[in-house]
């Protein structure tokens, strides 16, 4: 049994406008009740440049995590979507980006990196691209082991061979690498019409982090919590009844709109209430 109320509940960085300074981001996350911010490194040049942060940049950011008592716990490396490991033209760049992300995570004391496991992006996946993906993944996993960083593959809504929990779990167990785990996502599962709560039961202890978001069929982007297909009580019931030591992150996007910020409080209230309700049953 797991005390759900002891599980850190974070906010995806993209739920807070990028233009704001980091101190303001921490103030917003703290005020709205979240325990941490999930750092985003996506395909935008301004976020990719984070991979070149200096020691001073990292020291200043770590000082803020201590000031607000909000340590980073996960990094979302969605940039790997655009540099897929199975693409012969992009694989080397993808490997380099993941290695730099691992080094950044180590400097910021982030134990888990969410990896988007695309072998190709907007191209035809083939046995050859999937084999190249696996070979490259094993290289970066060995690199991550040197830094004690876990790479957690995301269950994806748009990759047929990694869109269900069982598929991801089978792959993780096939590779049997200690640095490879699963990053679940309730919305990505519901996107394809799957029962997220039932899907979670096929994880068999491989989940190290979970995005909590709602979805309707073929739409998982900012669907209001409680209005979509995800049964959060049943999902949380699953985590309650396993020895779960990972994290929960509310995945939302503010679209750089400052007026979105007040919604963060209601999002936190919704999830915290569901967590408390299920925990105390």
From TrEMBL:
<protein>
    <submittedName>
        <fullName>L-ribulose-5-phosphate 3-epimerase</fullName>
        <ecNumber>5.1.3.22</ecNumber>
    </submittedName>
</protein>
<dbReference type="InterPro" id="IPR050312">
    <property type="entry name" value="IolE/XylAMocC-like"/>
</dbReference>
<dbReference type="GO" id="GO:0034015">
    <property type="term" value="F:L-ribulose-5-phosphate 3-epimerase activity"/>
</dbReference>
<dbReference type="Pfam" id="PF01261">
    <property type="entry name" value="AP_endonuc_2"/>
</dbReference>
<keyword id="KW-0413">Isomerase</keyword>
<feature type="domain" description="Xylose isomerase-like TIM barrel">
    <location>
        <begin position="26"/>
        <end position="256"/>
    </location>
</feature>
<dbReference type="InterPro" id="IPR036237">
    <property type="entry name" value="Xyl_isomerase-like_sf"/>
</dbReference>
<dbReference type="InterPro" id="IPR013022">
    <property type="entry name" value="Xyl_isomerase-like_TIM-brl"/>
</dbReference>
């Amino acid at each position: 049994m797991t005390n759900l109320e002891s599980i850190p509940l974070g906010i995806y960085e993209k739920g807070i406008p990028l233009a704001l300074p980091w101190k303001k981001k921490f103030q917003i996350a703290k005020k709205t009740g979240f325990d941490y911010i999930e750092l985003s490194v996506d395909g935008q040049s301004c976020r990719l440049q984070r991979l070149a942060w200096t020691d001073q940049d990292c020291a200043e950011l770590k000082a803020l995590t201590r000031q607000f008592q909000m340590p980073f716990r996960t990094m979302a490396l969605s940039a790997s979507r655009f540099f897929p490991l199975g693409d012969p033209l992009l694989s080397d760049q993808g490997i380099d980006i993941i290695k730099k992300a691992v080094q950044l995570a180590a400097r910021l004391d982030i134990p888990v990196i969410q990896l988007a496991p695309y072998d190709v992006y907007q191209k035809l996946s083939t046995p050859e691209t999937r084999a190249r993906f696996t070979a490259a993944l094993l290289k970066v996993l060995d690199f991550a082991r040197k830094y004690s960083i876990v790479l957690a593959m995301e269950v994806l809504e748009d990759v047929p061979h990694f869109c269900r929990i069982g598929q991801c779990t089978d792959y993780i167990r096939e590779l049997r690498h200690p640095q490879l785990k699963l990053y679940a996502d309730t919305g990505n599962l519901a996107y394809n019409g799957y029962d997220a709560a039932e899907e979670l039961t096929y994880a068999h202890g491989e989940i190290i982090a979970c995005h909590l978001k709602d979805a309707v069929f073929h739409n998982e982007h900012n669907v209001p919590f409680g209005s979509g297909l995800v049964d959060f009580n049943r999902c949380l019931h699953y985590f309650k009844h396993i020895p779960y030591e990972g994290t929960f992150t509310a995945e939302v996007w503010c679209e750089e709109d400052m007026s979105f910020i007040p919604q963060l409080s209601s999002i936190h209230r919704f999830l915290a209430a569901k967590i408390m309700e299920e925990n105390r049953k």
